[in-house]
Design brief:
globular; 5 strands; 3-stranded antiparallel beta sheet; two-stranded antiparallel sheet
């Protein structure tokens, strides 16, 4: 080999090494930071909101805080560990998770424990599971895999109805077998949102939106003619239309929540100084926790919390746009739709913009199963982010 040839070989090897060094894996620490901030904010507000009722009910003011804190801490460690695993491995279990989730939804009606008039939880010893929360993650993962496998066939009406049917099945099981309208709406919203991203024709969505609007208007008009109803969902609509006149039908919780929001002002009464949490707002640590945040931290506190959610959604959008393949993009898009829907609907409920539906505020409201599967979604999102590759253009 001549000296010139050796020089060329060394030059090529050096160039290859430089190119290899220029490619690096990404990991979204910004999303990780938003998870930490929202979880910590939620724990502080959960303790402030629930201390009084926990002391009355359990003799321990930190009852809810300790349970949620322990679950959150364990889940966060799991997020750090399992987000290092390639999300394609998790996708292999999408079908199994979807089937298990639907079986649990069906079984809840028969083996579930009734709490506050609804069977939504399955108890295994002292451990409680809410299958509806599992169904959200299962639908996101399964529909993502199904859409990717269909490929170009997704442009056909047959594929559209197949994907819609899979999502509708979980939504229907959630509604009719766990009596959970709020989660059924969220699952339906996730399904429609993911289809909207991949299906080229928009006519079915326009027609569907029109049908939903007609049904909603029809229900409102019908509810206005009633003074009462045996159907608890109609009672909620009646209470929503005139909460002051229908306090016995559910208007009491709405009014107390609005009192809490109104009394907070710009900067609130101060952390821990809420009056409405002293059993005036029933189960304030759950779906009505935002009313106590408004009362104690005011509009300023709600704006800060909203900015945290917006930042989380922005990071999810960034990951979805830069995902290495369609599967990763769809998974993170589904998570984005879920979080956005749940936050918007919770705010709408507590401000009486829509009837009460029992939708919790992600990472803030109390709920063990909820936080576990929210963290599972964040694990998937971070796993997708880890597969993103960037090139360093510096020479």
């Amino acid at each position: 080999m001549t000296a010139v040839s050796k020089k060329k070989v060394r030059s090529i090897a050096k160039s290859a090494g430089t190119a290899a060094r220029q490619v690096f894996h990404y990991y979204d620490y910004n999303l990780l930071a938003s998870i930490i901030l929202l979880t910590c904010f939620g724990l502080v507000m959960l303790y402030s909101t629930s201390a009084y009722s926990a002391q009355i009910d359990f003799g321990d003011g930190m009852y809810y805080f300790k349970r949620q804190g322990a679950i959150s801490a364990v889940c966060f460690v799991m997020v750090l560990i399992f987000s290092q695993i390639d999300y394609h491995i998790y996708a292999k279990f999408a079908g199994l998770l979807y089937v298990v989730a639907n079986i649990l939804l069906f079984a809840t009606k028969f083996i579930g424990t009734e709490i506050y008039g609804a069977k939504r939880w399955i108890y295994i010893g002292s451990l409680s599971i809410q299958p509806a929360e599992i169904a959200k993650l299962a639908v996101i993962l399964f529909l993502s895999v199904l859409i990717v496998r269909m490929g170009k066939k997704m442009r056909t009406p047959k594929a559209f109805w197949m994907v819609l049917g899979c999502g509708a099945l979980s939504s229907a099981l959630t509604l009719f077998f766990t009596d959970n309208l709020s989660t059924a709406i969220i699952i339906a919203g996730i399904t429609v949102g993911m289809l909207f991203i991949v299906y080229p024709r928009k006519r079915p969505f326009v027609i569907g939106a029109g049908i939903v609007a007609v049904v909603v208007v029809g229900v409102i008009i019908y509810a206005q003619t009633l003074s009462g109803s045996e159907n608890f969902r109609l009672r909620r609509v009646i209470a929503w239309l005139d909460p002051e006149a229908n306090s016995s039908l559910g208007g009491y919780q709405i009014m107390q929540g609005l009192y809490a929001i109104g009394s907070g002002g710009i900067f609130g009464k101060g952390l821990g100084n809420s009056l409405q949490k002293l059993d005036f707002v029933p189960e304030a640590q759950n779906d009505m926790i935002l009313t106590i945040i408004c009362e104690e931290l005011g509009i300023f506190g709600v704006v800060v919390l909203s900015m945290l959610f917006v930042f989380m959604l922005y990071r999810l959008l960034f990951i979805a746009q830069n995902a290495p393949d369609l599967l990763g993009s769809l998974i993170v898009s589904g998570i984005f739709i879920h979080i956005a829907l749940q936050v918007v609907l919770n705010i709408a409920v507590v401000t009486n913009a829509i009837p009460t539906t029992g939708i919790t505020l992600p990472f803030v409201s109390y709920g063990g199963t909820s936080i576990v599967f929210l963290m599972a979604e964040m694990t998937l999102a971070l796993s997708v982010s880890r597969q993103i590759k960037f090139r360093d253009n510096e020479k």
